[in-house]
UniProtKB/TrEMBL annotation:
Name the record gives this protein: ABC transporter-like protein
GO MF terms, alphabetically ordered: ATP binding; ATP hydrolysis activity
Residue ranges the record marks as coiled coil: none
Annotated signal sequence range: none
């Protein structure tokens, strides 16, 4: 993705966005949509994918993250770990080149957080995707291939 985005046209920004998946600390899912509809939304950036294929891809990705029985559930019926799995499915469904994950375990207990990060790692490896994960959760650092520590916006340590 060797492209400068500062000053990019709208079309160039959309092209770049198609190659990036996002996982947010607060999920950033839409409560008025089902799990499947939240995942399908990402595919709207890919108009070349027919509507029926979008539905199928979203359903398959939700099954992959362990939510086969929850595809038609609205968010208020899902646990925090399940919501994060929907967010992971949404981020990965379009096979992005990179995933930007901001504190993906912050709202989760130790086991759920570990499960979510291991799932992200496995799926990203299967898709050949890079994950850039920002976290304060030291319990998941052993999963990282590379750790860069920052404090107050400055690089402190790099391994």
């Amino acid at each position: 993705m060797d492209q400068e985005l500062c000053g990019a046209t709208r079309s160039q920004l959309v092209q770049a966005r198609r190659q990036i998946g996002y996982i947010f600390q607060a999920y950033n899912l839409l409560n008025s949509l089902t799990a499947q509809e939240n995942v399908e939304m990402t595919l709207e950036l890919h108009p070349q994918i027919p509507w029926r294929d979008r539905q199928q891809k979203a359903q398959q990705m939700l099954e992959t993250v362990g939510l086969r029985e929850r595809t038609t559930y609205y968010l208020d019926s899902l646990s925090g770990g399940q919501k994060q799995r929907v967010a992971i499915a949404r981020a990965l469904v379009a096979n992005p080149k990179i995933i930007l994950a901001d504190e993906p375990t912050a709202a989760l207990d130790k086991k759920s957080g570990r499960d979510v990060v291991e799932l992200m790692q496995r799926l990203a490896q299967e898709q050949g995707c890079t994950i850039l994960l920002v976290t304060h959760d030291n319990r998941i650092l052993d999963i990282a291939d590379r750790i860069i520590e920052m404090e107050d916006g400055y690089l402190i340590q790099k391994d």
